[in-house]
Amino acid sequence: MPNPACPLFPVVAAALIDGAGRVLVQQRPPDKQMAGLWEFPGGKIESGEAPEAALVRELAEELAIDVAESDQTPVSFASQALAGKHLLLLLYLCRQWVGTPQLLDAVALQWATPAQLRELAMPPADAPFIAVLERHMKE
User: Fold this and answer.
1) pLDDT tens figures, 91-111
2) DSSP, res 21
């Protein structure tokens, strides 16, 4: 019997990389699904919104930083079935932004090297991005 179609849940995330080669991750608050896990900042793509525009909006809302669409480089994606929907997570690298990331939508922020990211509890869709980041940081 065929599975009923699951609605697609498109999400964008940023790997903000500082001058020391560290990536910013944030810890999910206790009132959200997957509470306490560390993730790359980002969020849902709204209806009719381009992924890059969604990432600009989400980073402003979550971290109070400004990122130009031209400073985002798409590098990877993850696809995962969730309860009643299907997650499509698009990851962008970003090495330039204006402002200092602020703690607005999470319980903690942390700058970590890819090796340090391996020690953090991350959502299943985010964890495979660590190897992608290691490759891109060597370039």
Assistant:
1) 999 999 999 999 998 999 999
2) S
Q: Are 53 and 65 in contact (CB under 8 A)?
A: no
Closest CA to 22 of 129, 136, 107, 116: 116
Rounded Cα distance, 30 and 70, in Å: 34
Q: What type of residue is 89?
A: L
Q: Tell me the pLDDT tens digit for each residue of 34-91.
A: 889 999 999 999 999 999 999 999 999 999 999 999 999 999 999 988 888 899 999 9
Copy the structure tokens of residue 104.
């607005």
Contact indicator for 45, 83 with CB cutoff of 8 Å: no
Kindly list the structural domains of the chain, giving each domain's residue range(s) and its CATH number in brackets, ordered by start: 8-138 (3.90.79.10)
